[in-house]
Amino acid sequence: MMQKAERFGAGAPQPSTPASGPERAGAGAGRQTLEDLARASYPDVWRLCAALVDRQAADDLAQETFVRAARSVSAFRGQVNPRLWIFAIARNTCMDELRRRHRHRRRQERLTAIAGTAGHGADPAGDVTANELLIHLDGDRRAAFVLTQLFRFSYQEAATVCDCPAGTIRSRVARAREDLIALLADDRAPTGGRPDHSIQ
Questions:
Q1: Of 9, 77, 137, 152, which one's alpha carbon is 20 to 30 angstroms from that of 119?
Q2: pTM: predicted TM-score of the whole model, two decimal places
């Protein structure tokens, strides 16, 4: 996985004309700082992507996070903690993927309904893992819950990552807990499926 972190620079934009003097030094310092940040934060970024989306997509999403970071590093002025900055990019990358999946799922549902082949069976899974429960949460609630409960961010830090007020994070975490309790209760019921709380 660390090899992926070291390859993120391939997506960084290159200047149209050679830089010189302080400009070149500044650009080199920015790239070096981002390389150091990538090496230090890649494992946590991968964990965040796995928790917000799934483990199968985590490699690609973590890679995309650092590609996006390389493209926007010139706009980073250090107003926030670099770790929160990279987590914000990772969160946005994951939200984009969840929206893409939601659109694809809705298209598939419409096609299935049109074809008249829709069918629903019992959930074959037995005990569900934490990730399998989290995947059913609304995307914003899932991000707030994962950041505060898994990564132990404060509400204010999570608010910085999610670009919203701390009170909104507090509310999303509370509602995520309620959703998880409902999901657990429904999973333990003898019949019936779990509700779909996918991102809208």
A1: 137
A2: 0.61
